[in-house]
Specification:
The complex is a heterodimer of chains A (about 375) and B (about 325).
Chain A lengths: L8 H17 L12 H16 L18 H13 L7 H15 L2 H12 L5 E4 L15 E5 L2 E9 L9 E7 L10 E7 L5 E6 L8 E12 L3 E2 L6 H14 L2 H16 L1 H6 L2 H27 L7 H25 L13 H16 L6 H12 L3
Parallel strand pairs in A: 1-4
Antiparallel strand pairs in A: 2-3, 3-7, 4-5, 5-8, 6-7
Helix pairs in contact in A: 1-3, 3-7, 4-5, 4-6, 6-10, 7-9, 7-10, 7-11, 9-10, 10-11, 10-12
Chain B lengths: L6 H16 L4 H8 L4 H10 L11 H16 L6 H5 L6 E4 L6 E4 L7 E4 L4 E4 L3 E3 L10 E4 L2 E6 L1 H32 L1 E2 L2 E2 L4 H30 L3 H29 L10 H14 L4 H15 L13
Parallel strand pairs in B: 1-3
Antiparallel strand pairs in B: 2-6, 3-4, 4-7, 5-6, 8-9
Helix pairs in contact in B: 1-4, 4-6, 6-7, 6-8, 6-9, 7-8, 8-9, 8-10
Classes of the chains: A alpha+beta (about 375), B alpha+beta (about 325).
The structure holds flavin-adenine dinucleotide.
Flavin-adenine dinucleotide sits at the interface of chains A and B.
Amino acid sequence: MTLDYSEPAKVTSLRAELRMLVDEHVPRGFLGAFTDDPADLAVTERFSRELGSRRLLTMAWPEEFGGLGAGVLEQTALREEMWAAHEPRGAQYMGLNWVGPVIMRHGTEEQRSLHLPPIASGEVIWCQGFSEPEAGSDLPALRTRATRVEGGWRITGQKVWTSYASMAQWCFLLARTGDPRGRKDGITVFLLDMNQPGVEVRPIPTMLGPHHLNEVYFDDAWVPDSGVLGEVDRGWRIVMDVLSFERIGIARYARCESLLRAAPEALGADAWAELPSGLRERWAAAMVRTRQTRLLAYRLLERAKSGTPPISEAALYRVAVTTLDQEVAEVLMEIVGNAALGTSDGHAVFVREVEDHWRYAQASTVASGTLEINKNTVARAAAGS
Amino acid sequence: MRLDLCPEAVEVGAMVRERIEGEGGVDVLRRCVADPDVRGAVGDMLGELGIWEIDISEGPIELEVAAEVCRAAGRYALPYPVVERLGATGADATALVSARGQAIANHRDLDLTWNALDLEGSRYDLPSGRRLPSATKLAPFGSEVDPVPRGDKAVRGAARLVLLQGWWLLGLLENAIEDTARYTEEREQFGRKLVRFQSVAFQLADMVLESEGSSELAKYALWSITNSADDDDALAEALGLRVALQRAAGVVLRGAHQLHGAMGFTDEVDVSWLSRASQAVRRLPEDSQRTTGAFLSAVERAGYSELGHIATASR
Ligand SMILES: Cc1cc2nc3c(=O)[nH]c(=O)nc-3n(C[C@H](O)[C@H](O)[C@H](O)COP(=O)(O)OP(=O)(O)OC[C@H]3O[C@@H](n4cnc5c(N)ncnc54)[C@H](O)[C@@H]3O)c2cc1C
């Protein structure tokens, strides 16, 4: 067998189907769920249900869990098409990319049947309660406390930077059940119902847009014994799974590629020809970088076929894709000139996409593990330590 | 050789800083983003300090004073056209605009008489400015303008304006570095101060290098522009400073975000606002690729005057 990078016909037709659905259900100019316009959130809800009804949300899940058992390429095509369209699934991608798969792997029968169907049908939003004020990169420093009581657990503490918390029904929560200084030992994963009195969500205003990041306070919040995922005190293994799934989950390069490719036409032939040649050269080089990153993603997904992707490979891809995101954002901002700073032209969709992409890209090297932490992981693996 | 600004400049700069600090520092920006109509009061505040009496055409002392005022204003990304007013030629305020037509000018909606210059020194009338209906987070005070070419030039005026814009950005970057340095000293992860991690320390060092290097160049450019008889020389010098500051802004503000972690994007910390507010100044009238192009043309036209005794390599 020789090398083969051709795309199978069924993957190409899947892309066509997804593009058609996007055209039909996502308004032009849509920039994701985190805008000031509540209509954008509604778009993601409708779109997710539409995909859910076609079983396209969980396409990559095994058939026994309501998926289509699709291969790596289809799953990848789905991620690419969605991210290139500014992720019209909204918050759903988290449930699909990692919450679901991790519950499949570590959950009880009861947990699977409680949680997987609503994720599959796009009806539920999850948030990730990991980071705390004193536990960012140093996640094992987390202090949110879970205390055992009759029939379950009481949770007290604070999470921060929790994406989607204000809209989430469930939280995938890390809390300390063992020794407070136990670091990676003594952490337990809880599946916590957000709709209860002991949970308070406070939005954090940021340059990324409204209601993206939040603080979440737990004051004697309740989780029944059946809400413990995996073993008590042994949650760290699950965390590693989560981070690997999460870090490969987002095809950021797809939005880079679609914006780069759209640039010449969006600008118009004359304006394009008048760009400084150095800038067009950077554009061309960015296309190559995008391709490299995409190929790294494909290698990672291929290796991840039979289980959890290796954490160092996920970290390497993450370094590539987040720095790509920022590099491309810079090139695109310069290509559209000062128009991305604001325009009265209501039809200027492209420049607004570029501005949005630029702002979001700034956070990509921090979210779900910083660039520095990922580089450490890559370097240690390279040195075999 | 004298590498320090004159005492008058240092004194006025400190006074302006103190006054803005008294008004809340970067909070002034926060307030004006929430309500752009209160920007007029910022101009009045500086007026009370006598800032609008500074006339940079009077001589080197005035230019140094103006530069320090711009640096003090930039430190807090003060939402007022300080550079445009202090660097004005023939109007209350002179904006820098792109020669490529459709343009955005900061604060053009404010009630002042305006005109404009591009990076080659060509003059424009700037009849009006429309507040952008959907001002982005990156240019909350942007106005769309249609500059009308006048057919004449004010090359030295452009050099001074670009110079002052450089000093404004310098102040902003210095503040971002101070905040970031403080944060890496205060915040601990893994039981250590962030600055103890080499990758953090290296980034911080890169940031410091960019701003210190820019600061020395800003002083040199100021001196050179004052002392050169040739307008084209002066413009090349100013554009060179801008090239340096655009690079510096990239390194410094990227690092400021990165070393603050998620905190760096919140409305709570100043660096998040400084980063946003820097955008319009970094990218207007032209971003770094095109500014470098303008600098290249200037150097090809006028040369890049020698700083001293380094002999040109012989072939
Ligand atoms: C957009 C966005 C969405 C997020 N969503 C979620 C979410 O849904 N749920 C959740 O739990 N968290 C979420 N986070 C939080 C994210 O996981 C943390 O921001 C990240 O882990 C870094 O932690 P920190 O912000 O506290 O930065 P810190 O850990 O304080 O880091 C500050 C700086 O120090 C550096 N540093 C720290 N330690 C080291 C080291 N050992 N070596 C070298 N450098 C180091 C970092 O790289 C960084 O540059 C989100 C963050 C962002 C930006």
